[in-house]
Amino acid sequence: MTRGLGGLFRGVQSLTSLPATRAGLGHPSACVSLRTMVALPSFLSFEPRDFSLPNSSWSSEMLRLYEQYSIQCEVETEGGENRGGQWQRLPSYNRSLKYATGGNYLSKIIQSKARLFTRNIRDPGAGFEYVVFANKEEKRCVCIFQAGHRLEGPPGHVHGGATATMIDTVTGSLAALLSGPVMTANLNINYRSAIPLGSTVLIETSLDSEEGRKKFISCKVTSTDGSKLHTEATALFLSINISHLLQGG
Ligand SMILES: CCCCCCCCCC(=O)SCCNC(=O)CCNC(=O)[C@H](O)C(C)(C)COP(=O)(O)OP(=O)(O)OC[C@H]1O[C@@H](n2cnc3c(N)ncnc32)[C@H](O)[C@@H]1OP(=O)(O)O
């Protein structure tokens, strides 16, 4: 299940050579080389909850689109091979650390109260409900996003910062899928029409070009039938070494 964004935290493996104290980790039990955590007791290595699966808050439109992309996804055969389908659903956890091998355990000791911004509202449907599908061959992603009532900006409509967060997340997911750990260096957004709270929208993103460590990505947010343009954006992501990040870089 973690295969989709597996590349995202390829760099976390380099984290395993850092003594935890250098990485700024305060917890006493973290004062060992993280390399020792590769062989985890099985009770600590269970799969984390995947927040991109349907829940009772999803609208019929959200479910319809989820089904539409799900049936175009690759499937794993009994022999372990991947067959058919151009798309893959990207899993979504409440901490990005959880994509790493042993990350579920690491997330309990590294700033254990930290939560991914888009997954920190527990009440289903109140905040960011979304699922991202990726087409790696075509270097693009589609996100189905349902904006909950806690994302209000102008009365009855989504806060521009919430829209920016989702654009950053979807463009960042594409950049990470294509090249491993990345950071947003630049994000330009044009807000064309407000998004009503509770509505479901599509966030479509694709790679424009790449240059060394740089990935230039564009994005648009539209109504699900494509008739209304809500937002347009471009983003620049730079590949990074995770150990640089953990050392405060
Ligand atoms: C888990 C599920 C998926 C979740 C996805 C969520 C995605 C969310 C991603 C984020 O929100 S990340 C958080 C917001 N971003 C930051 O906090 C980044 C802060 N900035 C940095 O850490 C550094 O500035 C950065 C890593 C982006 C770049 O520093 P580096 O030292 O690696 O690069 P450097 O400054 O040497 O620049 C390398 C090249 O990039 C260019 N560059 C850097 N920043 C730029 C910029 N802002 N605009 C344009 N070009 C830029 C720079 O000119 C240079 O070009 P050249 O190689 O052609 O000379």
What does this structure look like?
- There is one protein chain.
- It is globular, with a radius of gyration of 18 Å.
- The protein has a domain at 50-93 and 118-246: Thiol Ester Dehydrase, Chain A (Roll), CATH 3.10.129.
- The chain has helices spanning 12-15, 60-70, 103-109, 160-179, 242-246; strands at residues 75-76, 82-83, 88-90, 128-135, 140-147, 182-191, 200-211, 214-223, 229-239.
- The chain is α+β, with helices and mostly antiparallel strands and 249 residues long.
- The longest helix is centred in the C-terminal third of the chain and has 20 residues, at 160-179.
- The structure holds decanoyl-CoA.
- Decanoyl-CoA binds at residues 96, 168-169, 172-173, 183-186, 214, 236, 238, 240.
- The site of decanoyl-CoA (MFK) has 13 residues, from helix 4, strand 6 and strand 9.
- This is Acyl-coenzyme A thioesterase THEM4.
Give a quick set of tags describing it:
7-stranded antiparallel beta sheet; two-stranded antiparallel sheet; alpha+beta; Thiol Ester Dehydrase, Chain A; 249 residues; 9 strands; 5 helices; 27% strand; single chain; binds decanoyl-CoA
Q: What's the gist of this structure?
A:
It is found in: Cell projection, Ruffle membrane; Cytoplasm; Mitochondrion inner membrane; Mitochondrion intermembrane space. This protein is an alpha+beta fold and 249 residues long. 19% of the residues lie in helices and 27% in strands.
